[in-house]
Design goal:
single chain; alpha+beta; Structural Genomics Hypothetical 15.5 Kd Protein In mrcA-pckA Intergenic Region, Chain A; Pseudouridine synthase; 3 domains; 5-stranded antiparallel sheet; 19 strands; 21% helix
Length: 350
């Protein structure tokens, strides 16, 4: 009876770092260990991988975590979260400098600079964060003498800077991935966006998915007819008249979420070429102002987005950990220019 269970939900895409499945056990299914049951259903997995997910509390039956020896019963609702296996391309270690503010046996914290791609992919097989991590991990072994390897838990866009977490064991990856999937990770970003806000804070809700007309960019589906549920909370940090510095807290973690949500409400990120922020969207028509903005673009030739802080429960100790990162030099330079401009110019709404 394993061939045709009722698949309630299945999320397994190449651009995600984990897979999420929900099954309803067929009414005629015999009692069977859940690790064997799931191994027969999920392609390209192993019993050990499923058992690790169970040990990490990532297999739920009727809403409650179960161990790998649990025997499935007819009509059980099973949910499982699995980190995606590594892509089958050879990763060559490269001696690329890394800013590592914290590291222990289970994980490491990275301050990723803007311009660094996280994972090798078409067009970027070298010079990535994973190439740098592979070099960093070469010849390293864990406390049991096993070779260590970097395991991604989440990603940051190439031209976004800031805090990232990398797992150093399969168990740590599974537990951290579960926290990201369940939205129990505290993530705050700083962004410079076009325009001013009437309110000091707000929330943006709108499904985010790939634009059907351009698969390289994301879009918001406000009616919820496509895409994945996405929620971004924001609050104003500093106003400059034509642009505003905000803090964004992610409740979900969709691809380009902050960038596409901000465009959706009419406040594209400053110099975000993908979502229209690389043009003068607010301000005067004076030549000097145009030159001022273009100089800012040159100072920060990327979207003005920085992953400022990351808070989570340690996968082994359970202790809450919070890491914060300073804004990079290009970001602070642009902010200083806008502060100076705001002090000396009278803003006129177009």
């Amino acid at each position: 009876m394993l061939e045709n269970p009722d698949v309630i939900e299945s999320e397994e895409t190449k651009d995600e770092l984990y897979e999420h499945y929900r099954f309803k056990v067929d009414a005629g299914t015999d009692l069977l260990r859940i690790d064997k049951y799931l191994m027969n259903l999920i392609a390209n997995t192993s019993r050990n991988r499923i058992q690790q997910a169970a040990e990490a509390g990532c297999i739920l039956v009727n809403g409650k975590p179960v161990k790998s020896n649990y025997r499935v019963k007819p009509l059980d609702i099973i949910a499982i979260l699995l980190p995606n296996p590594p892509h089958e391309i050879e990763i060559i270690g490269e001696d690329i400098p890394l800013d590592i503010p914290y590291e222990d046996d289970d994980l490491m914290i990275i301050n990723k600079p803007a311009g660094l791609v996280v994972h090798p992919a078409f067009g970027n097989y070298t010079g990535t964060l994973v190439n740098a991590l592979t070099f960093h991990f070469q010849d390293k072994k864990d406390k049991n003498g096993n070779e260590q390897r970097p395991l991604l838990v989440h990603r940051i866009d190439k031209n976004t800077s800031g805090i990232m977490i990398v797992a150093k064991s399969d168990m740590a990856q599974v537990k951290l991935a579960s926290n990201f999937f369940e939205h129990s990770i505290d993530r705050k970003y700083r962004a410079l966006v076009w325009g001013d806000f009437k309110e000091d804070e707000g929330t943006i809700e709108g499904n985010v998915g790939r634009n059907p007309n351009d698969r390289l960019v994301m879009t918001v589906f406000p009616d919820g007819d496509a895409g994945k549920h996405a929620v971004t909370h924001y609050k104003v940090i500093e106003r400059f008249g034509y642009v505003t510095m905000i803090e964004c807290q992610l409740e979900t973690g969709r691809t380009h979420q902050i960038r596409v949500h901000m465009k959706y409400i009419g406040h594209p990120l400053f110099n975000d070429a993908t979502y229209g922020g690389d043009r003068i969207l607010k301000g005067t028509t004076y030549t000097k102002y145009k030159q001022f903005v273009e100089n800012c673009f040159k100072l920060m030739p990327r979207q003005a987005l920085h992953a400022k802080s990351l808070g989570f429960n340690h996968p082994t100790t359970g202790n809450y950990m919070l890491f914060d990162s300073e804004l990079p030099a290009d970001f602070t330079a642009v902010l200083d220019k806008w502060r100076n401009y705001a002090k000396h110019k009278e803003f006129i709404e177009d």
